[in-house]
Amino acid sequence: MNGFGGFAVRRAAGAVVTLLALSVIIYVVFYVTPGDVAQITCGPRCSPAQVQQVSAQLHLDDPLYARYWHFLQGIVAGQDYSTGTSVQHCSAPCLGLSYQSDQQVLTLILAKLPVTASLALGSMVLWLIIGVGTGVLSVWRRGRLTERLLTTVTLAGMSTPVFVIGLVLMIVVCGQLELLPFPQYVPFTDDPEQWAWNLLLPWLSLALVESATYARITRAAMLETLTEDHVRTFRAYGVGERAVIGRHALRGALAPLIAVNANNIGVLFGGAVLTETLFGLPGVGREMVEAVKVVDLPVVVGMVLVTGFFVVLANAVADVLYALADRRVVLT
Amino acid sequence: MSEAVLAVETPGADAPGVSGARQFWRRLRTRRAALVAASAVALLVLVALTAPLLTALEGQDPTTYHPSLVDSARGGVPVGPLGGISADHWLGVEPQTGRDLFARLVYGARVSLGVALAATVVQLVLGVAVGLAAGLGNRWIDQLLTRVADIFVAMPLMIVALALLAVVPTSFPRPVLVALVVGLVSGWATLAKLVRAQTLTLKEADHVAAARLSGWGTVRIARRELLPGLAAPVITFAAILVPTNISVEAALSFLGVGVRPPTPSWGQMLTSANVWYQAAPQYLLLPAGALFVTVLALTVLGDGVRTALDPRAASRLRVGTGRKGGRS
Amino acid sequence: MRQPSVIARRVAAASVSLVVAAGAAACGPEDNDAKAAGNDSAPHKGGTLTVLNSNPQQDFDPARLYTSGGGNVPSLVFRTLTTRNRENGEAGAQVVPDLATDTGRPNKDATVWTFTLKEGLKYEDGTEITSADVKYGIERSFAPELSGGAPYLRDWLVGAAGYQGPYKDKKGLSAIETPDERTIVFHLNKPEGEFPYLATQTQFTPVPKAKDTGTKYEQHPVSSGPYKVVSNENDGERLVLERNPHWSAATDAERKAYPDKIDVRSGLDSSVINQRLSASQGADAAAVTTDTNLGPAELAKVSGDKDLAARVGTGHFGYTNYIAFNPKVKPFDDPKVRQAISYALDRSSVVNAAGGSALAEPATTFLPDQKSFGHTPYDHYPAGKSGDPAKAKELLKEAGHGDGLTVTLTHSNAKDFETSPEIATAIQDALKKAGITVRLQGLEDNDYSDKIHDVKTEPGFFLAHWGADWPSGGPFLAPIFDGRQIVKDGANFNNGLLDDASVNAEIDAINKLTDLDAAAERWGALDSRIGEKALTVPLFHPVYKRLYGKDVKNVVISDWTGVLDVSQVAVK
Question: Model pTM?
């Protein structure tokens, strides 16, 4: 247990470093990229004097390091802000206020996160089923019609951008066949059944794009394992093909599958921008693109930190899973 | 276990006297699917390289507008059947502009394949190097590299692209910049994770342990013992990276940091053809089909190369479930 | 100018236009279309109207909205001193009273404007609307916390330039007087005959001081219109409006308010909105959009389908897309070069790039092709339908560029079919025939907007557009051509840096007129005169085509907004 405790502490420390580095990078990037925040916030026709007022209001005149320090202070101690008519408190960890909407960034993110989480987790289940299934079939039933069909479909999925797959699916399934309603996000807590029906198409679109990756990885790793000595031995002992593939070959595919999946899911928690935009899902990704366009620094930093957090978390989980799958691996 | 070491140590063991490279080609040649795929990839590259000749043959170029070939009153849908296919325009014309689709498709192949392949090289080099170092290095190196990879994974494409665009002067050749952005932001970190995971597993394998016991250095172990074991997953992943890179290039076009118009690319074509799926389907189907053929060919070729590289391929195919059994 | 309301015509998967104006654009229908649009049965009260939009109603605060004529959805909740006439076509470009009894009474030189509120005006909580509330609403729009509106109030009101709103300056604006509860008087710096138009903007909405919550007011602004906000989720992404029981139709001649409930769902992809409207299933049968046009691809599909074609509203919003020159940059200092480009232009291929003849009309005048703007036809350097490269070459030779000319055209990378790469490449292709080699410089949105609006970095040759704050020549010509509106240290819209004493004097003279028809005529003449300088090359005026659900009745599209008026729609 000591080993795991140490692992957890090291990872937590690593996560803090990663997140700090990410936030510094974003601050610097926004410093060099074009886009006059005060002018954009104020409106295109604002006079220089008015832009100056807005700039002061948003503390944009402070030097970069001071703004970053203010941001760190907010995380640790929270901050007070004025709505004009009253003073409000944004309690720690306060990620600041959106330049554009004056809402607390953390509130904004927490409102969008369930949408993105629903999208990410659901499509992950689908792509693992489709991808790993296709991969297994392509070893077990090599050359059969089902296998060829599935392989072709997943490859076609991979070679088509999600906004094409999604739109075509929507036109055909919702518009012409009327099998499903046009997706519209329904919170899981409101109505789990509607939640699933409405997310089915987005899940499928994303899964189609991703599954080929998993199919190829599964196939490659399984073929690799099948040549190993212990598998030969099993065969020699007359262990059935199904058992060899299911129990032993697939186990060999676990490490690469976990590695790729960890990154994918971590990134997806930062939002599947194209999918969210196409299906009108109010998730983290779409919010971030909009924030980048209007140079809304606090929102962007907040969103990137969320992505970073989930990438780190997913990778830590992946490392624990490796260790479980393969006792020889030591957690570092 | 010593048997395993032997197998890797002397790749030519099952065919004494034949060098590794020649054996590789021999194995590759004997796989029909791989050959077909290799020819398809070669053809695509050839098309990309000879784009100016091909379009000259057709008598068109990718940038000239033909307003008379589109129906202005109906949103600019191509005039005539099948999206305006004619003797002059072999694959029809682009809606709204009337630009020749064949010319745009073959010129698009240059940008898309060029960018995707160059980016893949960047990703392979970075991914394998970082992954190996993380997997073999001590705890601190591993932690550091893993953190750096995390940062790249978490950094949104759009932000990296915007930042680079702001810093790099406009005179810098755009396709190179695009390849760099694609290579840097996506793929390599995942590949590094993959390599690291595989390395961690391989590190514990018997033959590697044996090598370490016999006093080999880390670099030698990496080169002689690990790289061959990594070849399979890395090649598989590389075949996946290429189409993904083409998609990322599309996304970059979208964000305004792709190649500059009027230069065509498949990604750009897909992006703008999307909504024309109902009114002018071939506009979407052409780049989508081209991309699909590329992906299919690369995947099959990747499989073939991997099998041919792998000295144990023969035995696998024999003991494997392949009822069609490879002949090697 | 108004930011282009969404002319999102294409699936821009990742593109989100920077739209400050939450009130969507406008539209004006072709008259016969509008009639065909509604079903034959008469409109009735009741039902739920769904609004499917791409842009969320962010900043749903009357101080922060930048609208033309009060906007569409905002106008259901916010009443203003005056408003746009809710009629089809040309009649809809007139200004009519809303909260006030008339469109304002000017003094002799149009520097003092007096309005009287109607009797019996109430907020959603039943309290009385007073002239002090209108004054307070205007004052808070000066607060830096609530920025976003049009610049006119700041420019026109006496002593308003440095005012920072009621939160920092309790004394308020002395330029606005409220001698009694129903009277409000505005004192202006200079004569402004078009003040009644300005009073249609949401900043003229009454805000009860006791209910003001500053930046949080947008969550639940107090309604003076036929509907009140019952929920506002995700910063305006979903907005549900229900009847305001204290609104009285007797005081409001403009808003019909047929549906019982309005459900605004935004953040949708434009292609999905059009798919849903054309499928018209379930609640979508009673749906409209206030910000999404049909794109060229969708138009191609709709025009082949009779049923769908009958559900398309067509309108014209005062808007011009043009090429701008900066004569401080060589070789555009030479009028002959600018004229040559004018001659060489192929408007039919530009129109195609913008979506074809159904979605864009070729423009040779800077002013939109509408009577209220005083449109006066002219074409000083005629390019014909598809360009006159011979004439262009001749001029270039005279200008000393007989061997050809290489220039850089700056454009944005927005997916808007206005200043986007499609339009730029069409121009590039056309100028090639006249021996002009065009290099394209595509800039990311913010970069583009920073560069073209800064006199220090303004390129010599770029794509631009301008939209009407209200349907008149004043706000269309003055910001672009009035020499005193050149901004040296901020956002400048006078692209040509024109500072011509006779143009400036004429602008001042027209602003004195309170007879809007007479003013329109002179704006038209001024436009033609400025056109001779070839500082711009007008390209096209957009045409708005929008689908609506099959249960939607009473479709009204004015020339003011160019889009279906959501306050007139019935779903029963």
Answer: 0.86
